[in-house]
Design a protein that fits this description.
The protein contains seven helices and 13 strands. A hairpin with a 2-residue loop joins strand 5 and strand 6. The chain is globular, with a radius of gyration of 21 Å.
Length: 340
């Protein structure tokens, strides 16, 4: 696509809502980056019959496409079969950690490119954000509102709960596998399942190895999120349909009288320390999204390399919007907060 054509199709857009929004005139992109000096939207799509995706990059004009701390742009299209991300540049020093080569995840995006468990992630390397499809038939599904005094919680790991052949399920280690174990949960008298983290993380991003074989281990538990919205597709039988499989699970559990609680990790992210993978927050505005000391090092209250700056309005907004999403769009009943 030529530079002139790019200029003709991109519009000023709107600073709010944050993230990606579908309007009648097209798709609006808005992202917070207070200290950035240059922001570029990177879009990839796979044309029909092609074997490789086509990439387009749209530079934000710092005057036309910026309002305060928000960079925004509207593309006059209604196509949703694409992935996107951001390149961001800015000053060095003072806690900033910009790298224009990285293609960053939109913190407010609802879905990332699907991948199977253990498949290499491309976070920070290619556009990974997608538009989630809300076309799901919830039927008459409603919150169960079981009184806390009558609640019996079963904590489980989605993959670990049914991964072993002894579980006897057709879809082991998946959201759908949990549905097959509903009779077992009912027999125990369980009224709610608490799922260990189901937001997307990189299970391959670990330095630990098996001391006997030398094989690199996996981050099994998932307490290193790269997104507070995007569902872990590695827990789906079909990663392309992970969101629908999760919703199907919730609907089936509710029908059986079982609520769904999520274990949410907001105190830190999978980006870790400065030697970790820059996938989103660090590259967007490190000194705002994370707590830093007087030497611009991470305040590691979480013990996981970094600590989110949850007192900042943009981070509070992100957390609250994430919670609303899980309740309104995914019909989750409650939450447990890691290190709260």
């Amino acid at each position: 696509m030529s530079a002139n054509k790019k200029l003709r199709i991109k519009k000023r857009g709107y600073p709010l809502p944050t993230g990606i929004t579908l309007f009648k005139e097209g798709i609006n992109f808005s992202i917070f980056a207070r200290h950035a000096t240059r922001v570029t939207l990177v879009v990839e799509h796979l044309p029909q019959g092609a074997d490789r995706p086509v990439r387009h990059e749209f530079a934000f004009d710092p005057v036309e496409n910026r309002t305060g701390d928000m960079w925004h742009m509207l593309l006059p299209t209604h196509r949703q079969d694409f992935s996107y991300g951001y390149r961001v540049d800015g000053p060095s020093g003072n806690g900033h950690s910009y790298d224009y080569r990285r293609i960053l995840i939109d913190p407010f995006c609802r879905e990332l490119l699907p991948r199977k468990w253990a498949e290499p992630a491309q976070y920070g390397v290619k556009p990974c954000c997608r538009i989630v499809n809300h076309d799901f038939d919830w039927g008459n599904d409603r919150p169960l509102k079981t009184p806390l005094s009558e609640t019996i919680i079963y904590e489980l790991h989605v993959r670990g709960f049914t991964r072993d052949a002894s579980s006897g399920v057709k879809a082991p280690g998946t959201y759908l596998g949990i549905i097959e174990k509903i009779p077992y949960l009912k027999e125990l008298g369980v009224t709610a399942v608490e799922l260990m983290p189901v937001t997307q993380f990189d299970e391959n991003d670990t330095v630990f190895i098996n001391p006997q074989t030398g094989e690199r281990l996996k981050n099994f538990w998932g307490y290193n999120p790269v997104s507070f919205f995007a569902l872990n597709t590695g827990y789906a039988e079909n990663p392309d349909r992970a969101v629908d499989e999760f919703r199907t699970m919730v609907k089936a559990l509710h029908k059986a009288g079982i609520e769904v609680f999520l274990d949410m990790v907001y105190n830190h992210t999978g980006e870790g320390g400065y030697q970790g993978t820059t996938s989103s927050f660090r590259g967007l505005d490190n000194s705002i999204y994370y707590l830093l000391d007087q030497n611009q090092e991470y305040l590691n209250f979480s013990g996981c390399g970094n600590t989110m700056n949850c007192n900042h309005p943009i981070v509070r907004s992100l957390i609250k919007e994430s919670l609303r999403y899980w309740v309104t769009e995914m019909h989750v009943d409650g939450f447990r907060f890691d290190l709260a």
